[in-house]
Design a protein that fits this description.
19 strands, FAD/NAD(P)-binding domain, globular, 17% strand, single chain, 19 helices, five-stranded parallel beta sheet, seven-stranded mixed beta sheet, alpha/beta
Amino acid sequence: MATSSNPDVVIVGGGHNGLAAAAYLAKAGRDVLLLEKLDHAGGAAVSARAFDGVDARLSRYSYLVSLLPQEIIDDLGLRIRLARRRYSSYTPDPGRPGRGLLVDSGDAGATAASFAAVGAPATEAAAFEHFYAECRKLTGALWPTMTSPLPTRSEAKRLAMAAGAGDVWESLIERPIGTAITSRLHSDLVRGVVLTDALIGTFARADSADLQQNICFLYHVLGGGTGDWDVPIGGMGAVSGELERAARDAGATVLTSAEVTAVRSGGSVDYRHGGEERSVSAAWVLSNVAPAVLDGLRGGSTGEPPNPNHRREGSQVKVNLLLKRLPRLPDSGVSPEAAFGGTFHINETWTQLDDAYLSAEQGTVPDPLPCEIYCHSLTDPSILSPELQASGAHTLTVFGLHVPDRLITAENNEQMRAALQAAVVKSLNSVLAEPIEELLLTGDDGTPCIETKTTLDIQRAVGMPRGNIFHGGLDWPFAEDDAPLDTPARRWGVATDDYRILLCGSGARRGGAVSALGGHNAAMAVLESDPQLFGVRGPAPLA
């Protein structure tokens, strides 16, 4: 398709949020040009064949879906399927070899017995369930606001109070989450299971004063109002692929291998494509790149001091593996299919998580390294070829916590990648009945099917500054009471200091994870700013 020399909207970056914004705006009659520097759209929400000659399509960077509203799926006619997992989590007990906590969403009795098996107090299973039930009161009240203009803090609190979640509001929004966890739960292991949701990709302690851990926890339990995390059938690439289809079908131009080199006030965008330098002007520029990347593209012309929240470091290592079969466990009472059917927590007790934070803060890789595992192929074997399925092969994705970007430099990245991979393998082997290395398949080149991505690798591959999977620090999904909400962009949480340049990615106010919320909300801000457009869906009331 030929590109328009003067589109209505230029979108910088073709990640899933940029594609969502393109689809919404094109459906509303806008001439949309999306520019993506890679040779494919999708950003971090893609599937890839990571190993030479092996037909397995891994969700390489992002892998589960929770925060994508059904409203967006319906609006854009997305043909995607999400599968619910029966098991919530399995956590081996480092103090009781051969024992572990299995949280089985389909069998409350088995879950209670599992709590007892790891030595938790008799009241712990009920307290654990009550804690999350109380959280669901708050998330059930806040979830409908995610596709509406931002509520203020006071408005959000009133919604929580009306839902009977006043105490939870105080525990999760006003005070460090560590207090809420330790006051309600007593087992070191059970406390750690809860705390992990506050630490994914976030370098923080349970009692950090800036409450980044609280915001991270809220987003992890917010999706759908329930916090369920689902497996995308066909891999994460199926989600971004459907968003791209919706955008193209609506008439948007999606131009890949088009690297944006500058974004200027007034809607001018410079980019490089086909070996030529080009420029395009539009009424609106939507940025699907991280705010810190946008600052660079604007050449420091904003006149605003850098926002420190946009420059927060990522804090994880990601490891993808392809195995001949699932590994055996020391716990004979739990099958590998059950243990790996949800989130498999490794060395993530409360004490281990805090010790790991302190080690990383002092500049060393934690030992043991807290990790959690997700097995896509148990729920969705379609990502494997029929031959791999028949052989019993499975994928594992490992997310290592408390590996802050400060540990990684351009000079030590290769060395650190090897050290972190070794730390992950060591941590895994500490809770398995056999070495994971012996189960690795090999590619056609003879290399074992294991790949490791440091924060710097992630930054280089998909443009996330400092490897931060959220494009920077997370924000509350509401505005402070004194925040100006005098423009559509501010009301939708997508504003920059330039009225015509909006955030539409994970760096938007309600960004983070694969949700399409940044793209949806930026598109709504544009449409609200231009009421003459047809097809505008008015914002929903806060209730």
